[in-house]
Amino acid sequence: MSKPIELTPIGIDLGSIHARVAIGNLNHKNVCVDGAVDSTILPEIISNAQGSRYTLALVGTDQADAQSDEKTEEPRHIFGEAARRALAREKKPTISKDPSSMVREMLRSSSSAAKDDDTAAESSKAAAFFSHLVELACDASSSHPEKLRTVVSVSVASTPEEQNGVVKTLEKGISDALGARQSAKEAKAAKKKKGGKEEDPSVMAVITDPAAVCIAHGLTEIDHPGIIDLASSKSGTPSTWKNALVIDWGASGLTATHMCRTSTNSSLLTIVRHVTDTSCSGTAIIAALAKHCASMFERKSRVSGLLDSKKACHRLDMACESAVRTLSRAPTVTVAVDGLFEGIDMNVPISRPRFDMLMSGIMRKAETLLRTFTGEEAVNFDVVLLAGNVCDMPSASNLVRTKLFPNANAGRGDVPPDEAVAIGCARHAASILSCDTHSKHGGKKADEIGPATRKVKACPLTIGICRIEDGKQNGDLQETIANNSVPLIEVGEPLPANVTRSITCTNGDDLWSNSSIAIVQMQGGAAAESKVIGKIEKIELEEKKFEITMELSSAGKLAVSVNGGPSTAL
């Protein structure tokens, strides 16, 4: 008997400035937290070697190492704050002015530009950064790179080419991490064991940032006894939702996304609308604070030209980033840098009211953008979720929670906004692994599947729709269903299943006015004969068309909705 395969689900949030890695858990346990949500404990965010729960998504080259060893074919890559210090030593612009060394910018340029040596080098740097994240995940989970199954998030405005580039680069990073841990003998044995078979993908899915936030808060969990989808700090909030607004306020800008699901028992999400404003970005907030600190320093020290020094700007930006994080939890902070400029130390105290005043212009722009969603007719957001570092600030959260959306549900109370995307990716990876839908090999033996996975359920019969004329006798139904049915959910389809189909009425209005739509189980599979299991009467036809949505849960519950209306369980 071969050893069971223990797979580890991880989620990667590749932000514009920082990246986070979370390890999902496959064991569902009931937990009690403030505003308890669902029965799944949250994934664990991984800390890097410096003890930080986030890593600066910056890649550089160790020039000292390259100069000391001229025989090295490829210079050693450095990441995070070490790469930022290297930029300062080389007197290059800060990452806010020149983000070309950021991983997300590398992926964007390598996927859109023509393939040349520069784009190949950028892709190699991005793969090295992903390999670094994979090593962190392996060390934290005591796992092996080949046992990792990853879900990564991308921007809601990313193109398919960019998404494919992320997948290929991440897979190369995982392969590089695997090669670094394997000896030549182990690599040869692994290749022989595969025997030319197509291996399961290391990257199972790519999801958008708003979808990851919804998953982190449990909005995709289908209602069933013992589980509540949403956590609420307000009493009387319903456990079901229809419309959600995801506000992702991070380093690259403010993005508001309207998410919707087709019915209350559906786990599928639809992006209705999204708007982005880059002038409200976290980098703009840091730049405003840095400009204020530089002005106060020059006035007090009677010097000028601080912002013209690239090295001083690097150090000042780092101090201001730390100060902004501190002001999210403390009333005052001191921006201190030793020997910032011309050997003079900087110590500038900043209070939260003063900081709010510096941010007032950015807050007005953000309020203008978000009010475009509050004025939408017939849209009442049941849930408003926050993501991104800026949403940790009291002024930003008060703007959303108190001023603009005071009655909306806040989601899980134990999901930090800056870690929501990574948590959602890890939860999605664990969800895929739990039903074994990641595997390309359907014929695995029982002893090849670890205890952390289980086989996916399949639909045992075919369910469809059929037009039946009023007054039809039971004896005619078998023939009518056999000849005129349209299958929607077919036998063998993985559960849960959700199918939406547009039906065109081609036989004339008179026939349809004297008919009803029957929900039928068709002969075959577990069904010995065809029969009607439900009817839809008095369908309002628009241009001789109607849309029907049918969803079958893994528990065997069938729900149907017509023309986007309410879902009815059968």
Query: If helices are DSSP runs of H or I spanning 4 or more residues, what is the number of helices?
Result: 15
Relative helix content: 25-40%
What is the gyration radius calculated from CA atoms?
Answer: 28 Å
Q: Which structural class fits the helix and strand makeup?
A: alpha+beta
In whole angstroms, how far apart are the ends?
A: 44 Å
* Total strands: 22
Largest sheet: 6 strands, mixed
Q: Low-confidence stretches at least 5 residues in length (pLDDT < 50)?
A: 28-39, 223-238, 437-455
Mean pLDDT over the full residue set: 78
Strand content: 15-25%
- CA-based shape: elongated
Please describe the topology of this protein:
Blueprint: E1 8-14, E2 18-23, E3 44-45, E4 55-56, E5 59-61, H1 63-68, E6 77-79, H2 81-89, H3 103-112, H4 117-141, E7 148-154, H5 160-181, H6 184-194, E8 203-208, H7 209-216, E9 243-249, E10 254-260, E11 270-277, H8 282-301, H9 310-327, E12 332-341, E13 344-351, H10 352-358, H11 360-374, E14 383-387, H12 394-404, H13 420-434, E15 462-469, H14 474-484, E16 486-489, E17 497-504, H15 509-513, E18 515-522, E19 531-536, E20 545-552, E21 558-562, E22 568-569
Parallel strand pairs: 1-7, 7-8, 9-14
Antiparallel strand pairs: 1-2, 2-3, 2-4, 5-6, 9-10, 10-11, 12-13, 15-16, 15-18, 17-20, 18-19, 20-21, 21-22
Helix pairs in contact: 2-9, 3-4, 3-5, 4-5, 7-13, 8-9, 11-12
